[in-house]
Amino acid sequence: MDGTWGLFTDLPYEIFEQKIKLSQTHNAIINLINDEVDIILSARKMSAEEKGYAAEVAVNLIETPIALDALIFVEHPDNRIKSLTSSQIQDIYKGKIKKWKDVGGNDTPITPYVRNQNSGSQEIFETLVLPNEQIPEDFPEDQTITGMMLLLSRVQSDINGLGYTVFYYKENIIRDLCDVRTLSVNGIYPDKNTIKSRKYPYTSEVYVSIRSDLDKSSMAYKIYELLQTSAGKRMINESGYVAN
Which one of 17, 21, 24, 71 is at 20 to 30 Å from 101 when CA atoms are compared? Predict the structure, then answer.
């Protein structure tokens, strides 16, 4: 089908489905702690809540950065703003800047969107954009979106909308399925070069994680090791990520 792509394997689908699980970041980490999976790739390290749960069940995870990604901000394609500063983004999400004219745009209200708690992008947003802070308690409930594609679709349909996603998701998964414009931050546009050099201010790491008690003779442990080799870095780059 035009506009879509998939992962092909020689395994029958039923077996493939048993071997590979797709879930949001929080669920992936919990699955690993609960020994329901052997290895995960995630957009962030464990949150404080997840660390607490791991400690309760006496499980240690090894979290190893293997690639770079970035938190990017997106707007409606007809919005004329090309770049925001880090402080402007902070003030928008704190409710201090409410109109596009205050950042060089039209005299219309800004509609900022966020993701739900425990989503990978929301954790990255809170860590990189609002460290040691949270969005206001009176943040509109209907602007908290439970799915990444849904958030991008909402921005696409809202000329005053502002949202965020991760670079890899927009460029390699969504691609041209959703028409939103990526903003520069502090005048720096997020691409593979500015992410690799970490010039883009909201560059983040991607982790491969295993339990510390994983059998070192297992295939999962061999994959964990492979991803840290030069051959693994080539695969990471070919996948669309930026090897760390």
Answer: 71
